[in-house]
Specification:
The complex is a heterodimer of chains A (236) and B (89).
Chain A: E1 4-9, H1 16-27, E2 30-35, E3 46-49, H2 63-66, H3 69-80, E4 84-87, H4 89-96, E5 103-105, E6 113-121, E7 137-144, E8 148-150, H5 154-159, E9 163-168, E10 187-191, E11 197-200, H6 220-235
Parallel strand pairs in A: 1-2, 1-3, 3-4, 4-11
Antiparallel strand pairs in A: 5-8, 6-7, 6-9, 9-10, 10-11
Chain B: E1 4-14, H1 21-31, E2 45-54, H2 57-70, E3 79-87
Classes of the chains: A alpha/beta (236), B alpha+beta (89).
Chain lengths: 236, 89
Amino acid sequence: MTIKIAVIQFPGANCDLDTIHVLNNIIGIEASLIWHNHFKEAEFDGCVLPGGFSFGDYLRSGIIAAHSPSIDEARIMLKDGRPIIGICNGFQILTEAQFLPGALLRNESLKFVCKWVNIKVENNATAFTNKMRVGDNLAIPIAHGEGRYFTDKLKELEENNQIVFRYVNESGEITDEANPNGSMDNIAGICNLERNCVGLMPHPERASEEILSPKKTTHGRLFFDSMVEFIKRRTS
Amino acid sequence: MDDQEFIVEVVLENKKAARDPVGTTIQKDLLAKKGYDDISSVRSGQYLRIKLRADSEQDAREIVDKMCNELRIFNPVTQNLTILKVSKP
């Protein structure tokens, strides 16, 4: 079967083409760049909300995009159990659209932070982590000004095992120093209760090729390989 | 009759539980360092000045309140919304 993935392009997106490149040329599936007003969920097996900005990030990052017609389409996909990932600005859109709980606030440092970090896998039962092991320490870059995860339902998230990634140091320890933006409980990524939707601030599409990684790692691939596996299992 | 124009001023502010590094920086790194020790807290926010036509002041307030809630103009997870003032231009 040919796996078809939509990468939804909002005005201001800038990681859309990187994502398309990785899906088409590294993972080897059929990814299409879809302008946000043209997205039709029925044509795809899953979708990616890529990083960058959307609508100038005015009012709050992701809020204007969350009202776009593409999000109504994506909601159908979500309920149908197909995989949806929001990366960086995509994560902000997913929280504003209430696909995922919580919100992303301005970094504690008030600075845009662009660097390679380490994240620990906390849940490998999602559509985007089934090729990982719990406790895996992944090297992956971040690039954001508003990535401080906040929720008023932390206990609920923990109980439901919705915390998928936490920022850690190179030894895999959850420390304040390893937290790049002041996120609650070092949270870097979460999922919905059904596990088909994941949002995270780090950029797997920038960590999928040796040439782009300072340590020649390709941990970003695992996200997309997991998605392929999830789709195959779902449709078999 | 929507024949009157009103201005509704709205402030969006982070909830107490959501730290506000902008306000904290203004207070700690500017005010306190320049001798304004009496200032114990500063909270930052966003200000919207909305012009609309409505039947009455009450009506204008209700329209803005409904709009802000329906469209998540403020994020109820992290923010509070306060209508500061309704006035005529």
